[in-house]
Amino acid sequence: MFDDYLAGKPINLMIRILNTSKTLKFLVVFLLGVLVSNGSMARATKMPKAKKTVAAADSDLIKSLDGSNISWNIPGPTSSQSMPIGNGDIGLNVWVEPSGDLAFFIGKTDSWAATTHDLMKIGGVHVAMSPNPLAVGGAPFIQLLKLHEGEIEIKEGTGKNAIELRVWVDANHPVIRVEAKSGQPISFKVTLDDWRKDDAIVSDLTDQIVWYHRNGVTPTPLLTNKTFGASISGKGLISKEAKTLESSVATTSQLISITPLTSTTKTPEAWFGQLEKLVAHTDALNLEKCRREHQKWWDEFWHRSWIFASGNQAATDVTEGYILQRFITACAGRGAYPIKFNGSIFVVDDPQRVNKEKVPQPVNADYRAWDGQYWYQNTRAMYWPRLQAGDYDEIMPLFKMYQAEMKANEPTVKAYYKHNGSYFAEQIAFWAPLKYIGPEMPANWNDHYFTDILDMGMMMLDYYEYTGDTKFAREMAVPMISSGLTFFNEHFPLGPDGKLLLDPDNAIEMYWKASNPAPDIAGLHAILERMIALPANLADASTRLAWRKMQSELPDLPSEIRNGQKFLLPYAGPQTMKRRNGENPELYAIYPFRLYGLGKPDLELAIRTFNARTCKQKGCWVQDPIQAAMLGLTDVAEDYVHFNFTRSEPSLKFPAFWAEGNDYKPDEDNGGNGENGLQQMLLQAVGEKLLLFPAWPKDWDVNFKLNAPFNTTVQGKLVNGKLTDLVVTPASRMKDIINMAH
User: Fold this and answer.
1) How far apart are CA 384 and CA 376, in angstroms?
2) Boundary (domain end) residue, out of 547, 582, 599
3) Alpha helices (H) in 468-537, listed in sequence order
4) Strand 689-692, strand 737-739: pairing
5) N or C: which end of the chain has fewer CB within 10 A?
6) CA-wise closest residue to 92 among 175, 196, 156, 163
7) Which structural domain range is residue 505 located in?
8) Hey, how many other C-beta atoms are within 10 angstroms of the C-beta on 735?
9) Strands across the sheet with 683-686, in order?
10) How far is CA 425 from CA 167, 442, 475, in A?
11) Which residues, in sequence order, are bridge partners of residue 263?
């Protein structure tokens, strides 16, 4: 076996030994940590020379991406058979009815209703064309999602009877475009589908449909007077009644434009005035130029990163799931608020749900289980993968919303507990005040739950490391994290041993009002180490001294000895607490807090604890695929990631509308954790070292490009276990690559 080490395969050797002698296991794991920390492993593995293959790789990228386009040859018949499209803020569910009529729902990231405290649709649109080739049976039909172009193309009929539709949401402007071309003149009828009785339809308009939903004055200041709606218009379309436009004359070419707007105004008239200005702006845009710039945005998006795995059906499945989830996230990830884990902006109506949950009427497209609150532990799943994907613009809505919550909560914490610092709750709507949860308050799922600022702190520090954005670190990350650390330091006392005593403190949702729960202890250790290491221009000497003192007072992670072997525990003390959920708090030390993993001390302890985990469910918010990959457990990571990326919702046609699981359909947790797991299987950053293929299946090939800390990208191919076409940017980072391929 030691010939493997001499051949440059120390990690493979380690994995083989982990199945043999306990003594050898310890020695190899120890050597691995030393090798990674001092860089000698990089010298032990020969790296292929970088080749000038970037242009060829770009061509391969577009071809591979086109191979992942989704195509249907049977229309609708309902929103359950819809495709997603969007520009980061405005999203559509698009389908075609058996009659050939086009239909879509419009979602938006900031259309919050005060009556239900939920994120609602802007509305629905129905476009009828006459004559329509699908009115006669047997006419061909195709609906194609073109990922590279960011559009949906629909073709109905052939020859002079053919109709071609193009649906897209401008990546750079707040406008939806429906373009139609036909072989003969046809007439259009555009109808607003509005199912809410309290919406307002603007009357007395001659050439557009305008509607809106207005909250009015409410007990919730952030929702008061919030108004959302849209305008529908098109050349040659005239009003037949307030909710309908029709062609004044049949035509072979038609453009329909829909301009949504959410704004907080004192009066509906003020909102309408803003909408008129916005419509005038979008109408004045050059359509062809906008299309080119729109396609350029999507082209640049897809060139940020990619993963195309091949070799067997599982690799093909995972590739499609990864690409489609990244697309869905891009369609909803650049708006005013973060992505909703429970359906994003792509929820649809469900007439059958009345039989499942006994709601008073069939569910419409405004409904989602778990309502409008952001549950951070669920929301984070879509955002961790954005780092390696290079989708940094999509992370900012998450950071901004929680930054506002932290600032709003600081005076509340002071009033409640008479100390400084802040945190944000696991489950409270962004517009709601922080609740009082003193130690005397009864236990429940997430009141005594403080982990989230630590998790976000790790993500923020990673964002800073990836981008080098000092302004972000100085103005957002460091103040937020510092406030969170202050909260922990002043909210909890020191115990008899002189160490911080986190009690009562939930071990996430699994154990309520525990003592020294593992997630928070792991998070504090990880965060303080990184904060202390920040450059001097981000933390002054006195602040750094306070952090060092706090670090010295942190308790060790809870653990116990079983049958002569050490295991991590979810909380300190006798393990007698009632289990409340399906989670493994002890494994937060692996992810998200990364105290354990490949190239780090005590890998065997982490693997042993992982293998002994109580909860082994799959999909949704389960983070086992990520933790398995970080431990080099290839088979487990592959199994879980493949499960995530094949867990389509049976009632929905689009393959990446994931089963609702513990959340709601389409479940964004499921796809986000799949993305994260796959990325960790392919590339992991450990200090300055970059581990390539740390948990990659030996029968999978891959063409990839991923982002890494310090403004680094790593691009290459793995074919039959051989790494080729490696391009590391900047080139100085080539020395940090450790090839762990089989």
Assistant:
1) 12
2) 599
3) 470-472, 478-491, 518-532
4) parallel
5) N
6) 175
7) 391-409+427-599
8) 14
9) 683-686, 689-692, 737-739
10) 39, 16, 22
11) 227
Same domain, 444 and 523: yes
141 burial via Cβ count (<10 Å: 0-12, 13-18, 19+)? middle
The whole-angstrom separation of Cα 269 and Cα 381 is 40
Torsion of CA 357, 362, 366, 367, to 10 degrees: 0
Give the residue among 415, 411, 505 at the shortest CA–CA distance from 454: 505
- Structure-block tokens of residue 693: 């293929």
Q: Is residue 286 over pLDDT 80?
A: yes
Tokens of 78: 């309902």
Final residue of a domain: which of 304, 332, 356?
Answer: 304
The pTM for the full model equals 0.92
State the Cα–Cα distance between residues 87 and 154, nearest whole angstrom.
19
> Are 535 and 468 found together in one domain?
yes
291 and 398, same domain (yes or no): no
Give the separation between CA 436 and CA 409, rounded to whole angstroms: 11
In the predicted model, is pLDDT for residue 165 greater than 80? Answer: yes
Q: CA-to-CA distance for 262 and 618, rounded, in angstroms?
A: 38
Residue 123's closest CA among 97, 145, 93? Answer: 93
- The answer to whether 348 and 336 have CB atoms below 8 angstroms apart is no
Q: What is the CA radius of gyration of the chain?
A: 27
Count of C-beta atoms within a 10 Å radius of residue 472: 17
* Beta strands per DSSP E along 515-668: 559-562, 565-568
What is the rounded CA–CA span in Å between residue 263 and residue 275? 9
pLDDT of residue 56: 53
pLDDT in tens, 390-439: 999 999 999 999 999 999 999 999 999 999 999 999 998 999 999 999 99
